[in-house]
């Protein structure tokens, strides 16, 4: 039995190893380039003559990375919270209430996911100009939250449908109101789906580029994607060791979030896929 399990494990690793190598290769290139001395960045060698850890320190000060990191965290966290605050009641209503036009609304949510934000960016820019909120990081936060609501509602309502109605009816018979039942009974059972939705919403806001590039003007309000883009745009010389160090550092929060919430991610995706 043990030998059979060992063989299956070896076969799985052999099958998965090309995928693992392909996924990790860009990160390896980023890290190796980030650790090269400036004079060796463009040389055709894999390993640096010495490990230049100071590149991360100089990158932090030379590229205004700390301020961009704070802006990205601020925008991503608030956009995620705002999207969930609106999406959870909406998804619950789609799941538990039978109203006219419910199926149409579900299909409408699905259709909106086919539209790229770049299609709406011109109209969005004109709206922000009219409101006088260009170069306002709070405006970007609201836009990110709004763009993620449809996705969040679609993700949550498919999982909410798997939670038995009998549990809520039992709470109602005990005298609990609908709001209390939602908070005390329903939402604790929906934690995996909420966490999965929060992860995807956070990543969407963290990685978003086009809207931030359109609405943000000053370097003090830049998020990480725009700050890193500014390192290679409109410059006579590009400090590639700083670019790679900044890019690698920008992936760390997302990687930590995935590792920390992995059990919720797997459980939420598995259960949410079965209606």
TrEMBL record:
Domain ABC transmembrane type-1, residue spans: 69-261
Classification via PROSITE patterns: ABC_TM1
Keywords associated with the record: Cell membrane, Membrane, Sugar transport, Transmembrane, Transmembrane helix, Transport
Its membrane topology: Multi-pass membrane protein
Top-level taxon of the source organism: Bacteria
Compartments where located: Cell membrane
Gene Ontology terms: cellular component: plasma membrane
GO biological process annotation, one example: transmembrane transport
TM annotation in the entry: 12-35, 73-94, 115-134, 140-161, 182-206, 240-261
Its biological purpose: Part of the ABC transporter complex MalEFGK involved in maltose/maltodextrin import. Probably responsible for the translocation of the substrate across the membrane.
Family of the protein in this entry: Belongs to the binding-protein-dependent transport system permease family. MalFG subfamily.
Identification of the protein by name: Maltose/maltodextrin transport system permease protein MalG
Native source species: Microvirga guangxiensis
């Amino acid at each position: 039995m043990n030998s059979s399990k060992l063989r299956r494990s070896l076969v799985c690793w052999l099958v998965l190893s090309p995928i693992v190598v392909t996924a990790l290769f860009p990160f390896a290139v980023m890290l190796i380039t980030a650790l090269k001395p400036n004079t060796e960045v463009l040389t055709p060698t894999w390993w640096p003559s010495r490990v230049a850890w100071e590149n991360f320190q100089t990158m932090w000060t030379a590229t205004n990375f700390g301020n961009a990191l704070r802006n990205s965290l601020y925008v991503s966290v608030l956009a995620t919270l705002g999207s969930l605050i609106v999406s959870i009641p909406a998804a619950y209503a789609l799941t538990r209430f039978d109203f006219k036009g419910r199926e149409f609304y579900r299909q409408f949510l699905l259709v909106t996911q086919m539209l790229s934000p770049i299609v709406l960016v011109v109209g969005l820019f004109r709206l922000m100009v009219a409101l006088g909120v260009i170069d306002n990081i709070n405006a970007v936060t609201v836009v990110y939250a709004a763009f993620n609501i449809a996705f969040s509602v679609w993700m949550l309502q498919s999982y909410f449908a798997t939670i038995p109605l009998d549990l809520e009816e039992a709470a109602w018979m005990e005298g609990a109101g609908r709001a209390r039942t939602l908070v005390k009974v329903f939402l604790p059972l929906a934690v995996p789906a909420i966490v999965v939705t929060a992860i995807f919403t956070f990543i969407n806001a963290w990685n978003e580029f086009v809207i931030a590039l359109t609405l943000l003007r000053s370097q003090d309000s830049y998020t990480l994607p725009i700050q890193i883009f500014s390192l290679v745009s409109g410059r006579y010389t590009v400090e590639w060791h700083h670019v790679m160090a900044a890019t690698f550092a920008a992936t760390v929060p997302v990687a930590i979030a995935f590792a920390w919430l992995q059990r919720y991610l797997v459980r939420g995706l598995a259960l949410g896929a079965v209606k």
